[in-house]
């Protein structure tokens, strides 16, 4: 978005607060909504216009247009304006769709409110990539040059004249975006020669130059310096070398140096000003790197024959290449100190500070059982990663500019690793599980892998809860979970059966209501019968057992049985088995476990 200020909610219509408060609770608004009458909204809008990041306005489009028209300063400076109709049915990105992020804001608002996004822009309306803004979602930064308006006009013309489609040349960065449905119609070309890049209409590259360019974060600057080297010298060295090599500052992933310089004021200030991450390496790690220009003098002073070149290569990763060997610059004109710079190019892109990993619980599968929090996470994500069946259930919500990465059922680690890798590249990634991500799903493994990353290599991490099969099964039959309960998975693929049986015995002895996940499969057909035997040892045979299969889906089937007459052949991996405790009873098709409220009638289930 174009500004760093707040996101404000305004209502010119009665009842607008009811629409805006959920946005505040979801974190989309900076402050409580401003409502009609106090203060006068036209004056308030003028006062806050310049410093705002965006506005969500409840009211008529015509009214909003008349109010903001005198305030407009240009598409690169105006905040986002999103309009909501008074009934909350439609969300309209009115102003700043691409540059200010109104399209993205509108998508989030629509997800939270369950409303329909009405996109009137050329790209959004035709479900095509907005070439002037889509790179942000892929972790890139936009170059400072180029006629982006002309590029967008050409992209719009390509709808009726396919031969006029913009030519996009990519020599760096993640290429998965080319698989997007929204990328259909573009003329894509791989290019590794920076001297021929100018022939394209849009370039995705680490190199600076004329024309419209997106810059993936793939450059690492290795820096060494004398103690108390001044900031001006470092900036002169870095800027001069990047310009000399025609490398874009926007393509810099970060700075790297020896850990003995971790308190060097000029290095720290340079990183702060440029918003570049800093990575520090020990002398031992640096000395193990083979470099083209080792120095005996540096080895004697620092304990490693190379700081700049070795740090750049280490930060850029095992497949990195050195684009520029070390260059030394001494202070001049009153500048203090001296510095050394080397530049390496990573094999991929790296920007975890821009990325986020969302663990999304999709619920049982029905879209109306998906939480607003999960909907918003899905709307924000650039890539969805998950098991194909679960993604199929969510497919109606996926936009053409969102990539889907399917995985196999038993390949949980591979899915987590892919999602974490993409988030570390600077993308918003939704890692999807059925039910709740934190219940026998992906959140635990994903968090373990995330915690294994170095502190500066961790993208954002959020778990978005979903409705679990346990909850929906209970809701279908009444109130079987009104007293203490536990969940046990009967799958011994990751847990030894001896441990599972120990837990079953403890649950039986403790008289818990027990929900059994992964109860029975073609290759695991005896475990459920053994679990039933253990529980029968501690509770009556008349104990109600709920079999809930394909919950929330078209083939849903829920039935209630006795524990001593459980039809095992009706159970498979798509079934949740919910076994009552000694006080659970079934009556007229409903199942209840009494809580034991004072004065409530208790039923003796001892027989």
Write the SSE topology.
Blueprint: E1 7-11, H1 16-25, E2 34-35, H2 41-48, E3 54-58, H3 61-68, E4 80-84, E5 90-95, H4 102-113, E6 116-117, H5 122-126, E7 141-142, H6 148-157, E8 167-170, E9 187-190, E10 202-204, E11 212-215, E12 219-225, H7 231-244, E13 252-258, H8 265-274, E14 278-281, H9 283-287, H10 296-302, H11 308-316, E15 321-330, E16 338-345, E17 356-361, H12 372-380, E18 383-387, H13 388-394, E19 403-407, H14 412-424, E20 428-433, H15 443-451, E21 460-464, H16 469-477, E22 478-479, E23 485-489, H17 497-509, E24 513-517, H18 527-536, E25 544-549, E26 557-562, E27 575-579, E28 585-587, E29 590-592
Parallel strand pairs: 1-2, 1-3, 3-4, 5-6, 8-9, 8-10, 10-11, 12-13, 13-14, 17-20, 17-21, 18-19, 18-20, 22-29, 23-24
Antiparallel strand pairs: 4-5, 7-11, 12-16, 15-16, 24-27, 25-26, 25-27, 28-29
Helix pairs in contact: 4-12, 7-8, 14-15, 17-18
What do these coordinates show?
There is one protein chain. The chain has 18 helices and 29 strands. The protein has a 6-stranded mixed beta sheet, sandwiched between helices. The chain starts with 6 loop residues before the first strand and ends in a 15-residue tail after the last strand. With 607 residues, it is an alpha/beta fold. Helix 1 (16-25) links the parallel strand 1 (7-11) and strand 2 (34-35). Residues 602-607 have low confidence and may be disordered. It is globular and about 90 Å long.
